[in-house]
Amino acid sequence: GHDAHTAYLLGLADALIDLKDQLSGTLKIIHQHAEEMPPGGAQQIMASGALNDVDEIYGIHVVPVAGPEVIGFNKGNAFAGSSTFTLTIKGLGGHAASPHKTHDALVAGTNFVNTLQTIVSRRIDPSEMGVITVGAFEAPGGANVIQDKVTIKGTARYQNDDLEQFMYEEIEKVAQSVAVGFDITYDLDYQFGYPVLYNHPTQTNHVVDILSASKGDYFEQLVEIPAVSGSEDFAYYLKEIPGTFYIVGCKPEQLASPYMNHHPKFEVNEDALIVAAKSLGEIAINRLTATD
Description:
By secondary structure, the chain is of the alpha+beta class. It is about 35% helix and about 25% strand. It contains seven helices and twelve strands. Helix 3 packs antiparallel against helix 4.
């Protein structure tokens, strides 16, 4: 996915350089580092001052939920905010034949994972979006050994920034209850990550108007999509600069059920690179003319 984003943007930059003398205003193209490593590179780029004179900002993500003939947009809170956590549980190990002489970290850990699910189902308003996912449960050992240490890693996601602190506090409460119930100790390393990505309605409407009036035949459908539970540090740009972040389909033609982004077998239909470059090029040129 990241290679695709870099490739389409390089292609667009090359085309825009050829048109430079015909353009009014200034275009800045961002090749950003560390998008997948919170706190991400967007904050550093904003702090550098390189974008202080930017009036509007636009970005794209390729996703294989549709073919490259489809462009998707949404307004308002569009991508989830996210935080990550690592919980280390420390108990008292021992022989599997004598569990009463131990404080089983593994059983405590499974209880923590199960109870986490009640935060979304019982502690958050059903009309709000919330997701807590445990992605790693590490308790290496033998079949006849009760473990004294378990490490659990996961993420929390939300479409409302007010839930960021709330979900942290609830996860901490679950860890505390497990500590009391199973007589273990724990360490919770909680990292607040990317904020909710907010697509500004005015700039999103600009994109819709420009692409709806496009005379190009490089895409077929422009569709409004629901909010996305994935997270993007492009959100930091949009907290300071009006703009929008939209989707270009990249589903390979030969795959009925494509692998999603981050899967080791993820593939990109390279026609999406053309759609991304042309659509963003149209938007950039139109907005330069309109804001001149």
